[in-house]
Amino acid sequence: MFRVLLATLALALVSQSYAFAPTATTNGRMGTDLAARGKYAEIRKTIEKLDKDNFSATLTEVEPFLTKEAGITFYNKSLRRINTAAGALGVSVPEGYAVEAKCTAKRREKQAAYAAEQAAAEAEPAAEEDAPAEGEEAPAEE
Acidic residues bias located where (predicted)? Predict the structure, then answer.
């Protein structure tokens, strides 16, 4: 009887601890992709090592990642770090640097639609002021 209880207890403990072990399908990785996390760390270190001599070369190297792969948070933080480093080094970031980023596309589309809507709304009252009312005649030109 004692052996049966001991065996049952041992199996219960083994099955409970197995629930927390990684399965073969995870390949030992849980959570975020390690390859992407490594790339983010590499870009962050590259930005930290900016100096006057390598500034433009580093910006050229980092820009493809910022425009194609980076998420909005990493993109914003990286641009802030680059601008801060540029100010400290006494150089300037090229105008329009990494503006066409994939992560900002939706925001740019919304802003363009809003600007077009505002322009149309401003043009409408101006067109009404220029046109004479129906009952009035246009002033005669002499």
Answer: 125-142
